[in-house]
């Protein structure tokens, strides 16, 4: 993920298409992507915007990467 983010300006959003593309390019499947996102949301690490186009880390999730 650091390489993936390094060429873009920092924002507080994780765009769905960029995260999905990174996972698929690394050999992951759509089912693995969906399961991982749902796991992160269930554990309170991510919040999904109502539009479904991006996620944000919530405090518990941000602490995992601090």
Describe what this molecule looks like in 3D.
The protein is an alpha+beta fold. It has one domain (2-64). The protein is built from 4 helices and 3 strands, in the order αβααββα. It has helices spanning 2-6, 16-25, 30-42, 59-64, and strands at 14-15, 46-48, 54-57. The chain has a 3-stranded antiparallel sheet with strand order 1-3-2. β2 (46-48) and β3 form a beta hairpin. The radius of gyration is 12 Å and the shape is globular.
Give the quaternary arrangement of the chains: single chain
List the domain count as a whole number. Answer: 1
Uncertain stretches: none
Strand neighbour order, sheet with most strands: 1-3-2
Give the % helix. 40-55%
